[in-house]
Amino acid sequence: xxxxxxxxxxxxxxxxxxxxxxxxxxxxxxxxxxxxxxxxxxxxxxxxxxxxxxxxxxxxxxxxxxxxxxxxxxxxxxxxxxxxxxxxxxxxxxxxxxxxxxxxxxxxxxxxxxxxxxxxxxxxxxxxxxxxxxxxxxxxxxxxxxxxxxxxxxxxxxxxxxxxxxxxxxxxxxxxxxxxxxxxxxxxxxxxxxxxxxxxxxxxxxxxxxxxxxxxxxxxxxxxxxxxxxxxxxxxxxxxxxxxxxxxxxxxxxxxxxxxxxxxxxxxxxxxxxxxxxxxxxxxxxxxxxxxxxxxxxxxxxxxxxxxxxxxxxxxxxxxxxxxxxxxxxxxxxxxxxxxxxxxxxxxxxxxxxxxxxxxxxxxxxxxxxxxxxxxx
Length: 377
Fold this sequence. Notes:
This protein has 377 residues and is of the alpha/beta class. The chain is built from 14 helices and 13 strands. The strands form two sheets. The chain has an eight-stranded mixed beta sheet with strand order 3-4-2-1-5-7-8-6, sandwiched between helices.
């Protein structure tokens, strides 16, 4: 039975494999020290779920905040990229040790896995991460995943662990994602405004739902606001994965959220196959193809993208790179793997297939993006 309620996320039958993301503001106090007593209650809950047969993956923030305290760095270690990398190098040791110690108290082995954006964007490395996660879970371990902030630059960063958690859920074929946060869930407007209502259930992230997001993080310690959480929900739903945002402020946060019935559960409207879920969930694209209205309609019917429908080419990319497909107004329609490089696409813009061989000087391919390498968003 699939996940249908918030309580199902802690049910091993409905959710055999669960990704739990812990935000920095929950794990680290204002003094930069770990909130050990709170963390012990969470680990006890996760260990209980593990003993019931549920496989658990933890996506843990906190390395930068912990390292900043040890190094005496201001702004929580986020004053510069160099500060963040240095803080992460120190803090990651403390963070991994903390998780390992607390899980060991329940006779559970914790494993550390550090990832950069490229590890989940490049297909071969994505499959390697998938294999590692699967083997660890089969061995009964709890993988503890974090972004590898000590080497990640602005160009290869997730930037927040909400989207990392959703991509890890995709890679591990999880059934659910639980984001423990410093907010109660998604409100229909900024929760500071009068009359704001908490949404308990969301069936698919629509433009109307996106408009409700507030990009600010409540604590100032973490890096992800509500916008990043909605992006995580979109990534999860393409793989048919349910996701919830719940407040983690209380002791034993899972039991507290279920008892109070608070939080927002996002139920997926679709389930793409594994490769298309990976492609649709990509966070970094090399360029864009702008298409006319006819091509946009054809994509919606499941067709390949032909050069005749392309009106403009943006960015520099090579054959096989992931690109965006947009309509004339700039709305994102699809992600796909280009069959031509950017310069060739530019030459083929608006041209009929019969003209391609003369333009390129070689036998052309069937499409600019084949439907097997394209996912409509």
